[in-house]
């Protein structure tokens, strides 16, 4: 079996390991920034809608936009975990921890997606067909 010790010199391994740590940390920081910016953008958007006199719509869009920001941030955090736990120091223990983290974050993503769209993901096609049917019915009736 060929290992990285046989292919790369110790100095090169150190440089690669340092680069992977840096990449994982940068992506993780980017995920946090995306979540924070998503919260701020959703808040500003919602306050603007409330100022125009639509509090019910503002609340719904706030929850949806907040969920979208969190979902996008979670994707970055999962990518950072994959780099940090598997590429840097691969082991079965770290792989198990990564699997658990991904299961938890996937459950959160799934829950947020349902919260945003208000339907099960596998029912998306049904509602798109229904919405398209309504649009063509409106054109016929008009």
TrEMBL record:
Pfam families: DUF1622. Keywords: Membrane, Transmembrane, Transmembrane helix. The chain crosses the membrane at residues 29-48, 69-89, 95-114. InterPro entries: DUF1622. It comes from the Bacteria. PANTHER family: SLL0939 PROTEIN (PTHR38468:SF1). This is Membrane protein. It comes from Bradyrhizobium nitroreducens. The lineage of its organism: Bacteria, Pseudomonadati, Pseudomonadota, Alphaproteobacteria, Hyphomicrobiales.
């Amino acid at each position: 079996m060929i290992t990285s010790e046989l292919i790369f010199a110790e100095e090169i391994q150190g440089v690669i390991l340092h680069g992977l740590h840096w990449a994982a940390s940068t992506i993780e920081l980017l995920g946090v920034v995306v979540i924070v910016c998503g919260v701020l953008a959703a808040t500003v958007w919602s306050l603007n809608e409330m100022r125009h006199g639509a509090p019910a719509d503002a609340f719904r869009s706030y929850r949806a936009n907040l969920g979208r920001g969190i979902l996008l941030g979670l994707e970055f955090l999962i990518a950072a975990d994959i780099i940090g736990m598997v590429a840097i120091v691969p082991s079965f223990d770290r792989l198990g921890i990564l699997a658990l983290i991904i299961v938890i974050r996937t459950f959160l993503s799934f829950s947020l997606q349902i919260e945003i769209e208000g339907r099960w993901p596998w029912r998306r096609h049904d509602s798109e067909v229904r919405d398209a049917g309504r649009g063509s019915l409106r054109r016929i009736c008009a």
